[in-house]
Design a protein that fits this description.
The chain is an alpha/beta fold and 158 residues long. Helices cover 28% and strands 25% of the residues. It has five helices and eight strands. Strands 1, 2, 3, 4, 5, 6, 7 and 8 form an eight-stranded mixed sheet that branches. The chain is globular, with a radius of gyration of 14 Å. This is YbaK/EbsC family protein.
Length: 158
C-alpha cells in the first residue's frame, strides 16, 4: 500500500505502525478542505472527523485535535495549555513544526513530538477519522488511540 501513498503519508503510516496503531491510511478521491467534505467521503458524522489544527502558543506549536463539529475557543485552549496567547499558525509555521501541509496534518509523523490536546467530544464516536499527512489521506482510529499515540491531553476545546 505504501507505494501508492504520497510521501508524507508514507511517513505517517510508518509512525502509526511504530506506535502500534491499527488503522490503515486511505486515499480519498478528492481533497477534503472541510470536516463536512471529509465526513461525506468516508461516510461518517462530521463530529467523527478529528481536525488537526496547529496553533502558535507563545511561539511554540500546539496541536489541537478537535471534533469536526467544533470550533476551537482559543482563550479556553490558552488557559488549558497554560500559555498567554494561542493563535492560528501560519502555513510556514505548520510546515516547520509538522513537516506536513495545512489540510493534511496528521496527529503523528512530525519531525519532533508536538504538545497535543485532544477534544473530549471525539470520545463520543467509536471510530474517528484523522488526516494522514497529505490533503488526500485519512485513517480510522479511536479517541483512546489518538490520546495514546500523540501523548495528548484530553480536554474540552469549546
Amino acid at each position: 500500500m505504501s507505494e501508492k501513498l504520497p510521501a508524507n503519508a508514507v511517513v505517517v503510516e510508518s509512525a502509526l505502525r511504530e506506535l502500534g496503531a491499527t488503522g490503515e491510511i486511505v486515499v480519498l478521491p478528492e481533497k477534503a478542505p472541510t470536516a463536512a467534505t471529509a465526513a461525506a467521503q468516508v461516510g461518517c458524522e462530521v463530529g467523527a472527523i478529528a481536525n488537526s489544527l496547529v496553533f502558535d502558543a507563545d511561539g511554540e506549536p500546539l496541536l489541537v485535535l478537535t471534533s469536526g463539529a467544533h470550533r476551537v475557543n482559543v482563550e479556553l485552549v490558552a488557559r488549558t495549555a497554560g500559555v498567554g496567547r494561542v493563535r492560528r499558525a501560519t502555513p510556514e509555521f505548520v510546515r516547520a513544526a509538522t513537516g506536513q501541509p495545512i489540510g493534511g496534518v496528521a496527529p503523528v509523523g512530525h519531525p519532533a513530538p508536538l504538545r497535543t490536546l485532544v477534544d473530549n467530544w471525539l470520545s463520543k464516536h467509536e471510530v474517528v477519522w484523522a488526516a494522514g499527512g497529505h490533503p488526500l489521506t485519512v485513517f480510522p482510529t479511536t479517541f483512546d488511540e489518538l490520546v495514546r499515540i500523540t501523548g495528548g491531553t484530553p480536554v474540552d476545546v469549546e
